[in-house]
């Protein structure tokens, strides 16, 4: 799924920030908790939570509630993009984000393709 994003600089700033970049890489293939990200990024949890919030607001991270063995709930995060395209055009830069297709949408698309 490809979407144009309104503020190309804001998206580039988010993904080029060292912590934002690392969070997206760390969550590319699986959901991870903020604490796990804090450990793997060697960053204070408050720094990770700020980046998570910004990445989530830009729809670059998916959020999922998970259950730990003690029965407590916590949030886990996974990157919600497959590619980022930056183009220089006459009016300036444009950024397109290829976001992951939600499983329900993918199923619907596949099902409708069989009709």
Characterise this structure.
The protein has 115 residues and is an alpha+beta fold. It has a single domain, classed as Orthogonal Bundle (Arc Repressor Mutant, subunit A). The protein contains 5 helices and 6 strands. The strands form 2 sheets. The protein has a 3-stranded antiparallel β-sheet with strand order 1-6-5, with helices on one face. Strands 2-4-3 form a 3-stranded antiparallel β-sheet. Helix 3 (34-41) crosses helix 4. The chain is flat, with a radius of gyration of 16 Å. InterPro entries: WH-like_DNA-bd_sf, WH_DNA-bd_sf.
Observed structural traits:
alpha+beta, 3-stranded antiparallel β-sheet
CATH class: Mainly Alpha
User: CATH architecture, please?
Assistant: Orthogonal Bundle
- Helix content bin: 40-55%
**Would you tell me which CATH topology applies?**
Arc Repressor Mutant, subunit A
Largest sheet: 3 strands, antiparallel
Number of strands: 6
Please, what is the CATH homologous superfamily?
Winged helix-like DNA-binding domain superfamily/Winged helix DNA-binding domain
The total count of helices amounts to: 5
Query: SSE order, as H and E?
Result: EHHEHHEEEEH
Question: How would you summarize what this structure contains?
Answer:
With 115 residues, this protein is an alpha+beta fold.
């Amino acid at each position: 799924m490809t979407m144009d994003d309104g503020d190309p600089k804001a998206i580039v700033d988010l993904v080029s920030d060292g912590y934002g970049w690392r969070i997206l890489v760390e969550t590319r293939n699986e959901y991870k908790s903020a604490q796990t990200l804090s450990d793997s990024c060697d960053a204070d949890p408050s720094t990770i939570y700020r980046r998570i919030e910004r990445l989530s607001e830009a729809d670059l991270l998916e959020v999922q509630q998970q259950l730990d063995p003690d029965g407590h709930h916590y949030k886990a995060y996974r990157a919600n993009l497959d590619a980022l395209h930056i183009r220089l055009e006459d009016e300036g830069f444009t950024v397109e984000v290829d976001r992951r297709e939600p499983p329900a949408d993918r199923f619907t698309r596949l099902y409708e393709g069989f009709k």
